[in-house]
Structure formats: structure tokens, C-alpha cells
Amino acid sequence: MKIALITSLLLAASATLAADITVKHAWARATVPGQPVSGAFLEITAGKAAVLTGASSPAAAMVEVHEMKMEGGVMKMRQLDKLPLPAGQTMALKPGSYHLMLMQLKAPLKVGEQLPLVLHVEQDGKSIKLNTTAEVRDLAGK
């Protein structure tokens, strides 16, 4: 009885933490056979300050948080260890900016498929894993 009560309380606390963070408009770019990488994009909003520390997907061996930006007239991309999520602000991960880099894809991503993603977030000193899905779209995001 006590174990069931403790488990219920832990699940409720976890759901409360996750409920403070919303993910919308998640999508990923389709690939052609043999293409080992793709990008995933989404909007994430945290009610309280949080940090996106990474992601994972069963479709890729590695998923990293990346940033693209112009430096000295050259577009550069780099991996980020963390991406701050300011309280109450929507952080857009989009082409040409912050995004998730899906690497060593296990199979091509086809338009119309649903790509499972797990976002790794830290908030209030706790690690949270948020499950979401991204619609696979064509290169233009349609």
C-alpha cells in the first residue's frame, strides 16, 4: 500500500513538472536513402526557467542541440551543451537558428511519418524527459 502511494505521488510530481513545459509545432526534415543526418524543429515554452540539455530519438544514434548563426559573413553551426529556456518565453528551434541535429539515422525519414523525440530538460534542479513526436515534412517544411 505504501509503495503504491509513493509511486502515485512521484508520478503526479513528475506530471506536474512536465506540465509546466509545452512543446508545439514539432517537425523534422525528410531525408533521401543514405542521408545520415536531418534536423528537427519545434517551439518550447517553460512556465518556470529551465534548460534544454539534449534530446534523443530511437530513429537516430545521436541527437544534439545545435545553433546556426552568421559570424564574419559566414554561416557557422555548433553544438550547444545547453539552451536556456527563459520563464514564460517561447524558444523557437527553427531552420537557420537553434535546432536538433539528428545524426546517424537508422533509416530514411519519410514525409508523413511521426518521429518520436525525447527532450532532456533541467528545471528546479530536476531532470525531466519530455516525450513528443515530430511530423516528417519535405525540405521546405510543408
Q: Give the number of DSSP strands.
A: 10
Span between N and C termini? 51 Å
Number of alpha- plus pi-helical segments: 1
Helical content class: 10-25%
Structural class: mainly beta
Identify low-pLDDT runs: 1-17
Give the SSE string. Answer: HEEEEEEEEEE
Biggest sheet, open or closed, and with what strands and sense? 10 strands, mixed
Let me know the average pLDDT.
Answer: 88
Rg on CA atoms, Å = 17 Å
CA-based shape: globular
Strand % is over 45%
Protein name: Copper chaperone PCu(A)C
Keywords: Signal
Pfam families: PCuAC
Signal peptide: 1-18
Task: Describe the protein.
- Helix content is 13%, strand content 57%.
- The protein has one helix at residues 2-19; strands spanning 21-29, 37-46, 50-56, 60-71, 74-80, 83-85, 90-93, 99-105, 114-123, 126-137.
- It starts with a helix and ends in a 5-residue tail after the last strand.
- Strands 1, 2, 3, 4, 5, 6, 7, 8, 9 and 10 form a ten-stranded mixed β-sheet that branches.
- It is mainly beta and 142 residues long.
- Strand 9 and strand 10 (126-137) form a beta hairpin.
- The protein has one helix and ten strands.
